[in-house]
Amino acid sequence: MTDTSPINPVPVGLDDGYAFTKIALPDGRLLAIPSRARVGQSGVTWIHEAEQRIAEYETEDTVYSVGAVDGAPTHFEGYPWSGLNRAVVQHALQQAGLAGQSVHAVSGLPVSTFYRKSGEHRQETIARKRDSLKQAVRPLSDTLPVGIAFHEVIPEALAAWYDYVIVDLEDGVTLDADRVSVPVAIVDIVDIGGRTTDYVVVKDQGILHASSGSLQCGMLNVKQCVTDGIQERFDLESLSEQIVSHAIENKAVRLQGKDHDVAALVEAAKREVVEQIHDETRRQLGLGIELDRVLFVGGGTVALADHIANWFPHQAIAEHPPFANARGMLKYLRYVCEASDAA
Fold it and tell me: End-to-end distance of the chain based on CA atoms, in angstroms?
């Protein structure tokens, strides 16, 4: 990216998901924006400049609009290293107040995208993701770009494990020896719009691949069911992504100036997805007898909290679960990457 030449790069945990992009900063701030963007200029002029809710960016000679737009789908295989992704990430970093600064970042990939079934790293895929965010992204405004000078990639659910075992202290971070030594399962149910549920089992700092992997089912399935249901009920040919997201969050859809209750539709969609995730969780983890803890993370954990409440007697939900991966990525950057550089 463009060299902004500050002396001290800012460390950033960057969970750039299909539905939301979340950032964790060393001062404790947590930021999330929808991963909502599309190719082309917005075609919108804001009456009050201070109220602008769309930003435009250029990367690889293509312009993207990010923010309050009817976003293009992000659930395609190449999204993690696409121009669409870079524009969304740049916008998130701008929203975090990092314009004109250089950052060091750690982001992630789903477990099954990061690892082969044998446990080998998918080196080419990881390199594509790592290199992509270093490419230049230019704001089409007077704002200075944020430069990513260093970028590492780790498995997403494993990032939540780092968040669990690495403890912040006043003078830095350290490993919690008790948490590191026992087997822990991480179940990462991703945000509304997300396409996978990740599983990682870690014991003595080793990943047990037989009980780790990804299920191609997440809150994206809820979104699609709700979209189909609203279109059928109101005889609509199409429905914007923003309207569907609002309907899921508020259990009501506003059409032609009137609110319509869709709570039953949303709950039915959630139950269907929960059944699939529950079945896969049992397949991967069984009853979790040999695990010290089953930790649920991800935005989907919040959305489905009532449905997953009693799956395991020793389960827990991470603090601010949508940000567990981003926090873990920041801790990995500070504890592992910076320690390696210093060695």
Answer: 27
Please determine, for residue 13, whether its predicted confidence score (pLDDT) is greater than 80: yes
Model pLDDT, residue 317: 92
How far is Cα 16 from Cα 69, in angstroms, rounded to an integer?
A: 18
Helices 324-332 and 156-165 pack at an angle, to 10 degrees, of 70
Question: Residue 12's beta-bridge partner residues?
Answer: 105
Quickly state the pLDDT bin for 6 (edges 50, 70, 90): low
Structural tokens at position 82: 């696409």
Handedness of CA 196, 330, 208, 165 (dihedral sign): negative
Contacts of residues 266-272 at CB distance under 8 Å and 24 or more positions apart, as own/partner, are 266/222, 266/226, 268/225, 268/229, 269/221, 269/222, 269/225, 269/226, 269/229, 270/222, 270/303, 270/304, 270/307, 271/307, 272/221, 272/225
Phi-psi category of residue 288: left, alpha or beta, with phi > 0 → left and psi -120 to 50 → alpha: left
What does the buried/exposed string (b/e) look like for 288-321 if buried means 16 or more CB atoms within 10 Å of the residue's CB? beebebbbbbbbbbbbbeebbeebbeebebbeeb
Rounded CA gap, 107 and 156, in Å?
Answer: 8
Q: For 268-297, write each residue's pLDDT tens digit.
A: 998 988 898 899 999 999 999 999 999 999
Supply the pTM of this predicted model. 0.87
Q: How many CB atoms lie within 10 A of CB 102?
A: 21
CA distance 296 to 189: 7
